[in-house]
Structures are given as C-alpha cells and as structure tokens.
Amino acid sequence: MTAPSDVFLPPVAPSDVQRITCVGAGVIGGGWVAHFLARGYDVTAWDPGADAARRLRQIVDAAWPALTNLGLAPGASRDRLHIVDDLADALADAQFVQESAPEDLDVKIDLLARIDALTPQGVVISSSTSGYSMSEMQVSAANPGRLVVGHPFNPPYLIPLVEVVGGTRTHSGAVAWASEFFTLVGKSVITMEREVPGFIANRLQEALWREALHMVAEGEATVEQIDTAITDGPGLRWPFHGPCMTFHLAGGEGGMAHMLDHFGPSLKAPWTRLEAPELTPELRDAMVAGCETEADGRTNVELIAERDAKMIAIMQAMQDVSRRE
Which residues form the 3-hydroxyacyl-CoA dehydrogenase NAD binding domain (predicted)? Predict the structure, then answer.
C-alpha cells in the first residue's frame, strides 16, 4: 500500500462523526446498519433491490433484542434510520460511508466510483468486501485515496472484528482514520500493512472450511461430526486464545519454542489438505443434507436467535472476567 505525498484532510475527526451512510442493505449491510444505530448514530441507507426497505427494517428489528441485551449507546434508536431511494440523497451529507454491495468485482468498481463522485470531499469510504483487494476496486474512482477496505464478519452487529487495509492508491491517512473510527464504534480492528487476498481471518477460516469439505467428500467425517469437533473442542478456547497462543500454552513452560521443537516434525504429517476439493454435485448435496440434519427442524430465524443468545453469553462472560482481573 502506498501513501500519497499530499496531506489527507477529512472534514471531521472520527470522534465527531454523527451521520453514516450504508450503501447496500442485505445481510452484511443490514448488520452494519443495526450496529451503527445501536452505537447512537444517524444512519441513512440505500439499496436498489426490490422491497429493500422492508427487508432492511426486518434485519434491524431482528437484531435489536440482541443489541439491547448487549447494551445500547446513549441516544440509540431505530427511529434514526432513514431509507432513501436516491443514491445522491443518501450520500449528500455523509460523514462516513460503508459499502456492502454483492461480491461482484465489476459491481464494486462501478459502485465505488459512483459513491466517490457523490460523497462530500475527504469523507472516508469503506468497503465490506470479503475477498477483493481495494487496489482492484478503486481503479475507476476519481479520488481513490479515501477508499479503504473495512471487512467485517457476520453478523456485523455482534462480531467485533474488522480488518482495515488500503489499496495501492489509498492514502495512509484514510486507513488510519478508518481504523480509529471503527475502534470508536466498538470494533476490534486489525490494520493490515499490506493487501492479502481474502485478508487474514477469511484465509484462516477458508483453510478449515476446505479441510471440512475434503473430509465429507472422502467419507472421513459427517457434517455434524465436523461441527461438533470445533464447537466442543478447540472452538471453546478460541473466544480467549487464538491458534498461536493455544499452541504457545501447549508448549508448557517452554512455550511456543518447545512446542515447535517437539511437534515441528508433525507439520510434515498428512493432517490437512490445502487444495480445494472439486465441488461435485454429490459433495454439494452431502453438505446441504448434513446441515439440514444438524438443524433438526429449526428454521434459520430460530438458529440465528439461538446463535445470538449464545454469542452474547460468551461476550458477557468475557466482560465479567475482565472486570474481575
């Protein structure tokens, strides 16, 4: 990522932002809307899809009980959501923009250029892309220096992680501004020094996902066994320690050094496959059937409510532990 020599001058400091525009209001965009509303901002949303307004309000309403349980910021209200039909109207007085359009490169390139043309000078524009680099997406923008990636995890209104990185034409000041802003709105921010396809968390998640597909394809494990292996195994440690600290602790008094010296040769063992399997109709059907079996008749709405409640319990428990330390 390069930093242009000119000074980056946003119109407001991250702490002074009051009005946010969300472009795209599907699952990710709607989750962002709910999060920003819960943090006490005025949010304007635009989405060209049919029945977008109703679907967005449904997303926000579904998220609100969880957000209320987690704790709303002073002034937080669903009444501060404004849904407009015209993109120019949505961006006219924006102080920060979060784009969450479908993951299509041509769509992203065109939309980010339009957003850039309509957004007040200097306002940072962030993309929720889950895989494209900003260097790829900013090619048609007249002011690419203010375009950054702000990659969230679903649901954005609960999972705190946001990965921030600029493109080759992004100003370093825009990256710093976005990182500070996301921190202020309650996110756990990773500011990446360089672009990596898929960013950090998605690459780690993808490796696990590909190995799961391999095991189902080879008949080595069922969908339910794979999920249980994580939820009742290493996943219980992950809210507190990531894989690196987990292995550090596995090394005992010698820490990571002992773990690597002792277990390093096992890295050559055939414990994983890093090439994606062929997604055959049979594998696709096996994955679908396995998830239906694991859902055991519960609808997606019921599963989401159950997931949110459990995540809140974990997050509240972690907060309680931190207060006692």
Answer: 20-194
Mean pLDDT of 59-63: 96
Given a cut of 60, is residue 5 above it in pLDDT?
no
Beta strands in the chain (DSSP E): 19-23, 42-46, 81-83, 96-99, 125-127, 147-152, 161-166, 188-191
pLDDT of residue 267: 66
What is the per-residue pLDDT for 114?
98
Mention every residue, 6+ apart, whose C-beta is less than 8 A from residue 267. none
pLDDT at residue 33 tops 90: yes
Q: Which of 112, 118, 128 is nearest to 94 (CA)?
A: 118
Report the pLDDT value the prediction gives residue 155, as an integer from 0 to 100: 94
Q: CA 168, CA 164: separation in Å to the nearest integer?
A: 14
The SS3 assignment for 288 reads helix
Is 201 in contact with 153 (CB distance < 8 Å)? yes
Question: Domain 14-191 is of which CATH architecture?
Answer: 3-Layer(aba) Sandwich (3.40)
Q: Are strands 125-127 and 147-152 parallel, antiparallel or unpaired?
A: parallel
The token duo for 14 is 């991250």
Please state which of the ranges 81-85, 171-175, 255-259, 271-275 shows the lowest mean pLDDT.
Answer: 271-275
In the chain, what are the domain boundaries?
14-191, 201-324
Question: pLDDT tens for residues 226-256?
Answer: 999 998 889 888 887 888 888 788 778 788 7
In CATH terms, 201-324 corresponds, of 1.10.287.90, 1.10.1040.10, 3.40.50.1000, 1.10.760.10, to 1.10.1040.10
Task: Return the ∠ at Cα 119 (arms to 117 and 120), rounded to 5°.
Answer: 115
